[in-house]
Each structure stands twice: as structure tokens, then as C-alpha cells.
Amino acid sequence: MVDTCFLSQGLTTLAGLLLLPFGSLAASQIEVGVRPSERQGPAGDSCVVAVCTSRFWFNYRHVANTLSVYRSVKRLGIPDSHIVLMLADDMACNPRNPKPATVYSHKNMELNVYGDDVEVDYRSYEVTVENFLRVLTGRIPSSTPRSKRLLSDDRSNILIYMTGHGGNGFLKFQDSEEITNIELADAFEQMWQKRRYNELLFIIDTCQGASMYERFYSPNIMALASSQVGEDSLSHQPDPAVGVHLMDRYTFYVLEFLEEINPASQTNMNDLFQVCPKSLCVSTPGHRTDLFQRDPKNVLITDFFGSVRKVEITTETLSLQPDSGVIESRVWVVYESGSSLSLAFV
Length: 346
Known about the structure:
The chain has 346 residues and is of the alpha/beta class. It folds into two domains: 1-19 and 329-346, no CATH class; 42-305, Rossmann fold (3-Layer(aba) Sandwich), CATH 3.40.50.1460. It has seven helices and 16 strands. It has helices spanning 60-75, 129-137, 181-193, 249-258, 269-273, 278-281, 302-305; strands at 3-7, 15-18, 46-52, 83-87, 122-123, 157-163, 166-167, 170-173, 177-180, 199-205, 221-225, 235-239, 244-248, 286-288, 330-337, 340-345. The strands form four sheets. Strands 5-4-3-6-10-11-14 form a seven-stranded mixed β-sheet, sandwiched between helices. The chain has a four-stranded antiparallel β-sheet with strand order 1-16-15-2, with no helix packed on it. A hairpin with a 3-residue loop joins strand 8 (170-173) and strand 9 (177-180). Helix 1 (60-75) packs parallel to helix 4 (249-258). The longest helix is centred in the first third of the chain and has 16 residues, at 60-75. It comes from Ovis aries (Sheep).
């Protein structure tokens, strides 16, 4: 008996061996026809929610902040299917933009963080406190497309990055509403209770940013902020051609730090804590680790910013006898058929 599903065009012929555990994995659990990137929360996967809450041209830097993080996590292997990108304004197509379809993070237009493959999931007036909280908690209407969902579970490491204008205990959304640190803390607790994350890294670049993580109380959360309570988070990289500052100081130095990271890097979170000292940021960056179970020096940057699969190697011999708990192997074969590619197993 042969089951067939069609995959995307242009792949080369492949073959693999799939061992199906008997009993612990029923046949009904086999996801035939589902791309790996669409399966919910494979072990070791990272997910990202990147949010810019500001509108208007003079807030260009907040869009550039968010796109810088988006660009970095994609470069390190996290696919768009695992990223929820929320941009409250479209600077790339703003009529004031001297270089349409671009957003730059460095003066003299050295680095375009917009690129040519940006997938914005929530844009303009879709970027609201309600939609943000629904993405985190999974309380989304059934009609919502997969691209607007955070497909995570209790095996997922989640990076949440936010930037915009804030104050002591709040972050503004589009100058019309606010999310408070209590609301954010309660949303993370819902995520924990609903088994929507394994570990969570929260980063915020805003004025008085540290106030946003003061109320967190859920396990396995590490938090970073660009400024302490009572401090402003300052802009950086003024560009006369664009007419505004291109980025905020904290995210600018985080971006420079991430540009040196590759998927095999052993750089850890303690290194990230040091990227923007007061001498560079002017404000005082902060971090909180008391809720996090692991020592930050043992947490790799790629645990949150990259997609590095965790592999367990065993030297044990597995019996393939019928009574061993492992049923017969099935061979997957990929072959071309006209302009399509087919996958079959027997």
C-alpha cells in the first residue's frame, strides 16, 4: 500500500529511513502531507514574536529596531513559519522615504534590514494590545491563518522582542492604548499554564524598560531591558538623508553583537548582557534571571535567536524483532513527477 503527498517543486531526489515506535506512536499520529515547518512545536524549535508598537515617520527607528531582530533570527535559521512580526507602520513604503522599499539601521545607508523577503503578519491598525495578547495566549479565532499564530508548545523556546514608547509600568501601542506590566505578566502566566513555552526570553527597548519585567512571576523567563526605571532609552544613528534617527542605541549594539553570531557559536547570554554598557547606551540596561532555572552562562544565544536542533546520541543497540516494541521500517522515497515532486512510503 502506498500513500502519496505532493511537495514543493524543484527539490532533488531523496530517500530516508523512518522508524515508527509501536504502541507509543499510533498510526493516527503520523502527519502525512504536513510540512515539518508547519508542525506545532517540534522539540528544540525556537519561536519569535517581534513587535513594533509605534506609528509615524519620526518613529522610524522603532521599525528598524524590530526588523533588525527579525533579520538576525532569520539569518540564524528560524523560518517565517516560526516568527510573528507585528509592525504598526510601514516605513518602507512611506512617501517620505528617500529609498523606497528599504529600512536602514546604519547611517549612510550601510545595512538594509528590510531585505526582499519580509513577511509582516500584523500591520498597521492590526497591531493592538488585544491581538498581541491573543497571539501569546493562543486565544485566536479558528479562522485565523497559521501565519498569524504562535505555533509553540511546552518544548519551544520563545523570544519576545518589543520596542516603542513607554513609561513606568506600561508600553504604548500606536499612541491610542497601553499594555501594562501586570497584563504582560499575566499573559506569560497563561502561556505557562497552557504549556506554550519551555523557556522564554523577553527583550524590550523603551524608556523605563526594566519596569515591564518587574511583575513577572512565571517560571523559566529571562528578561532584558534597555533602561532602568526613571531613565530614557535613547536614539542613535541620525541620518540627514532620512531626516530621523535610524535606531535606538540598545538595539543597535544588540544588532552588531548578533552580526558576529553564527549557528555554531558558543556565545552565551552573559555575553549579551554586556553588549551595551552605560558608556555606549547612556541609559543603564538591565536584566532579570531569578525566574530562569539555568545559569545564563550555560544558555547559548542560539537557544533563542537560532534554530539549532537538539540531538540525542545513543550507543545502545535497538532490536527490530516484532516483539521488541519497534515495528518494521518504512522507506520514504521522493521522486519527480512532471513539474511536481511526490513523497511515498511503503
